[in-house]
Every structure is written in C-alpha cells, then in structure tokens.
UniProtKB/TrEMBL annotation:
Protein origin, superkingdom: Eukaryota
Family: Belongs to the plastid outer envelope porin OEP21 (TC 1.B.29) family.
Topology term for the membrane: Multi-pass membrane protein
Role according to the record: Voltage-dependent rectifying anion channel that facilitates the translocation between chloroplast and cytoplasm of phosphorylated carbohydrates such as triosephosphate, 3-phosphoglycerate and inorganic phosphate (Pi) depending of ATP to triosephosphate ratio in the plastidial intermembrane space; in high triosephosphate/ATP conditions (e.g. photosynthesis), export of triosphosphate from chloroplast (outward rectifying channels), but in high ATP/triosephosphate conditions (e.g. dark phase), import of phosphosolutes (inward rectifying channels).
Major location category of this protein: plastid
Location in or out of the cell: Plastid, Chloroplast outer membrane; Plastid, Etioplast membrane
Keywords: Chloroplast, Ion transport, Membrane, Plastid, Transmembrane, Transport
Signal sequence extent: none
Record bears the keyword Membrane: yes
Organism lineage: Eukaryota, Viridiplantae, Chlorophyta, core chlorophytes, Chlorophyceae
Record keyword Lipid metabolism present: no
Species for this entry: Dunaliella salina (Green alga)
Classification via InterPro entries: OEP21
Protein name per UniProt: Encoded protein
Length: 190
C-alpha cells in the first residue's frame, strides 16, 4: 500500500493519502485510493475493478509501454452526498506510454477514461491527461530527480467543450512539489 502526506499550501491543511493496486493474472486489476483531510475530517475515496488488455507484454527498462485498455466498474465518494454509499458506474480507460529518447528516462504518457451511470445512461466523468516526464538518475549521490509537466483535460457533462489545466511536478525520491488545479501542494511518500 502506498501512503503519503499531502500539504496544501493555499488552504494550509494536511491530508493523508492511501493508494493500493492489486493485479491478478490474467489481467484483473483492483485499484483503490482515499484522501483523509485531517482538518475537516472528510474522507474522499474511489475504487475501480476492471479487466485489462495489453497489446503486448511489457519489456523491462524499455521506455515505451504497450497500449493498455481497461473496462469494469467504478465507485467514488461524493462531496454532495457525504456518508451515502455511491452507486457503481461502468468504467472504460486507455493508456499509452512512448519513449521520446533512447531508454526509459524521457517519456510521453497519455491516458483517458470515462465513467457511465447505467441507470441514467449518461457520462458522469470524461477525463484525460497527457504529460512529458524526464528522470535524472543519480542527480546527487543519494537522490534521483523527476520533472513532469502536462495537461489534464476534463469534459464536464454539461459543457459543450473540454477544459484543460496545466500541471507540473518536481519529484525527489520521496518528496514532491506539485502544481495542479491552479494551486501548489507538497507530498511526502512514506
């Protein structure tokens, strides 16, 4: 289980994040994450159970990864209805990572996903992300450094056009400084 602290620099509050990903052959994936706000006591969570299909096996130390298609069920807490058990939604996703230079240090990653409410027969979530990342292994004697920049794209169900917001991350082993959704925050992985 991945755990980390998130400190929001604008709101001055500390959040505790848990994340887990389990993969069971042949291609069943269970992902869950939760974010606990230590100031308000709110817990936001989401989980996805999906089947995953890859176009080819992954090759270790290769920057490019095969196309990854997923389909399954998704649940997520709602800030509008705290404490209410969320209804499951249908989920579809696609992801691709391409090495821009020789080796795995500079990569272009793209992913997109949709969630559909089967009762209402409408999209509840349409999002995507594209980023470029570069890793400096051995930046100092004990530190690696990773710089990522990209765009989050969201297409709300009531909007005619998608909206995009830039993001940036500078990561050193466990520490990261992030800019996302128009504000800065720090993370520390435990």
């Amino acid at each position: 289980m991945d755990t980390s602290f998130h400190y929001d620099l604008a709101e001055k509050n500390l959040n505790f994040k848990l994340r887990e990903r389990l993969v069971v052959p042949p291609g069943i994936e269970l992902k869950g994450k939760g974010l606990f706000n230590t100031v308000s006591g709110n817990l936001n969570y989401s989980g996805t159970l999906r089947g995953v299909l890859k176009t080819r096996p992954e090759v270790k130390d290769e920057g490019s990864l095969p196309w990854k298609f997923g389909g399954g069920v998704h649940v997520a807490s709602s800030e509008d209805q705290p404490g209410k058990l969320p209804a499951p939604q249908l989920h579809a996703s696609v992801k691709k990572v391409v090495s821009l230079l020789e080796g795995p240090r500079t990569v272009l990653s793209s992913k997109a996903w949709v969630n559909v409410d089967p009762k209402a027969q409408k999209f509840t979530d349409r999002k995507g992300s594209i980023k470029i990342s570069h890793k400096w292994m051995g930046f100092t004697q004990r530190q690696d450094l990773k710089l990522s920049a990209g765009l989050d794209v969201s297409w709300p169900t009531k909007a005619n056009e998608p909206t995009s917001t830039p993001f940036l991350q500078v990561r050193e082993n466990n520490w990261a400084l992030n800019y996302r959704n128009k504000h800065w925050f720090c993370t520390y992985d435990l």
